[in-house]
Amino acid sequence: MPVRIFNVYVHKQVILLGFLEFCAIIASVYAGAYLRFAGDMGGVVDSIGTLWPKALIVSAIIMAAMTAMGLYHARLRPRRSGIAVRVIVAFILGGGALVTLFYVAPSLYVGRGALALGLFIAFLLVSLIRTVFFTIVGDDVFKRRILVYGAGEKAGSIMGLRRRSDRRGFKVHGFIRANEAETRVDPERLIELPGSLVDYAVANAIDEIVVAIDDRRRGIDLPELLAAKLVGIRVTDALSFFERETGKVRLDLLYPSWLIYSEGFDRRPAQLFLGRLLDIVFSLGLLAIAWPFMIGVVIAIRLEEGWRAPVLYRQTRVGFQGRDFDVLKFRSMTVDAEQDGVAQWAKKNDSRVTKVGEVIRKYRLDELPQIFNVLRNDMSFVGPRPERPRFVAELSEQIPYYSERHCVKPGITGWAQLCYAYGSSTEDAMEKLQYDLFYVKNRSLLFDLMVMLQTAEVVLWKAGAR
After folding, report:
1. Which of 103, 227, 281, 319 is 20–30 Å from 43 (CA)?
2. Which residues contact 140 (CB under 8 A, 6 or more apart)?
């Protein structure tokens, strides 16, 4: 069962993996110091002082780098070679961050030889842990056994989950038909109850019952479901189940009362203040790092198109509570890209994109001027991507609940960008809206930090860029 931590659903497998690797890195720091001083732990204390707080810091920074590489993302799907590359990059980035930290705070210095040995041992241990762990998790050891109460369209959509990452946390034991009208599920998966629902669930070690009845007015047995809940079996409706397992809110199952009565949509003043503070700190920090790249982009654009060519592109977008604002971007298309004034979706191999534009889009450098939008409070660092007024008007007519994404400020990066490729159609917008609604509903500071860290993965591996 996923654990909800500050509005973020985290699978128990991921928590266990993180705990094992956190402990392994701490042990590696001790092992590195032990080897560096030839087994003389007294020499370790004399040379680098108390080691345990330093080991905790090293472990936390390496874990943050691994998070930034998407190594704790529930939807990580690369092959083992791809995961190995991400682990290597994470250790390189973490090592660089540690060197910078030691330069700023020399009292935290572990020792060059001890740190190098510790990181090497940690890399070997993390690689071993992941190989063994994912071999075990590939079986059904960690999966919850669920019983689906229903056999119609909603129930069938559970079996329709195609991505392995969406099915990682559960195994379907079977389906119980609530009424004769439900015929969507394969008859071989149907279960005929020999007695009561609760007795069958207890006898078969069912962890959770998912209520997926198409018409709740027909066939739902509330006393049986209540009895199951009272004996400790979790009872979940289909929409909440999909939200938890897929990280999005299914539009085809969504109904207003679920949004009204469900948890989430936390807008406490303290959270809003801390969120704004986080936006300012991260924006200034990113600006301090990115300004050389921004100058390089300016020079590259003018070398390609002339020194009088405009560098920045201002475009009207819809922001918080439907208010328009001008978003800033480095210009990646030709000056006359929309000469007729009609907004167009970006498309693959778009002929309007310049050579420099193709590069800066691939590495998301064109988005860097939006730092100033964040500082001006037009945008947040994390949130749904802002769209153009014409597209918003069209999509609001075609897609239900589209306007609800404007109840938070738009962001430079967001949950939808991490989970779905670049959108260029109404169908893509509908799919991304499901992730945006999940973010809006479950937004928290920890969620924002997680998205910020994992955005590094999107930039480095060019996921979703166009």
Report:
1. 103
2. 171
